[in-house]
Write a structure and sequence with these properties.
Structural class: mainly beta
Low-confidence stretches: none
Radius of gyration: 17 Å
Length: 184
């Protein structure tokens, strides 16, 4: 479930993904609007108001453009797992970073992936066998705290999420390098 800035609720069920619009009195009208047949785990809007979802149906990241959903099939290679005879990433949690890159966790391989709109960067957790990241939180100091099947893992970026303002816009942001916070 996700609550948008305007109060609308986005909820995923086995029957699909729904938007429950908030009315002027602060309540929700029924029935909700069905926005997809996808079964979704998680939703988030980026600053451009693009809706992103992690899907239980397809196990991939989805981006909503207008009324259409774009499925990002090829994910971060470093986080691929043999899922029923197919090597692929298996998404779980999704978050939008301040610069509109999309941060994901995966269900099978411990680590994080970042989608910048053109390519993936994958950051597996070193030394952890099969163990996905159920949830993660980006802390105020920009560290990322992750709940895994093997306990808590903390990553601290060596570069900030938000690039310093430049007088000239750069074509693409630099990738983030991750350093593990001690033994996991």
């Amino acid at each position: 479930m996700y609550i948008a800035a305007n109060g609308d609720a986005y909820v995923g069920f086995r029957a699909g993904a729904y938007r429950d619009p908030m009315d002027d009195e602060g309540t929700y009208t029924l029935p909700p609007d069905k926005i997809s047949d996808l079964t979704c785990y998680d939703f988030v809007f980026d600053s451009r108001q693009t809706l992103w979802a992690s899907s239980y149906s397809t196990l991939h990241l989805h981006e909503r453009r207008g009324e259409n959903w774009i499925e990002h099939v090829d994910g971060p290679r470093e986080l691929y797992y043999d899922w029923n005879g197919t090597d692929k990433y298996v998404i779980h949690h999704v978050e939008a970073l301040p610069d509109d890159r999309i941060l994901i966790s995966t269900q099978a391989t411990g680590g994080l992936g970042i989608w910048d709109g053109t390519k993936w960067e994958g950051y597996p957790i070193p030394g952890i066998p099969f163990s996905g990241v159920g949830r993660f939180v980006v802390a105020p100091d920009r560290s990322i705290w992750m709940g895994t099947g093997n306990g808590l893992a903390i990553f601290r970026p060596t570069e900030p999420f938000e690039p310093e303002p430049d007088p000239e816009p750069e074509p693409s942001p630099a990738p983030i390098a991750w350093v593990p916070d001690g033994d996991t």
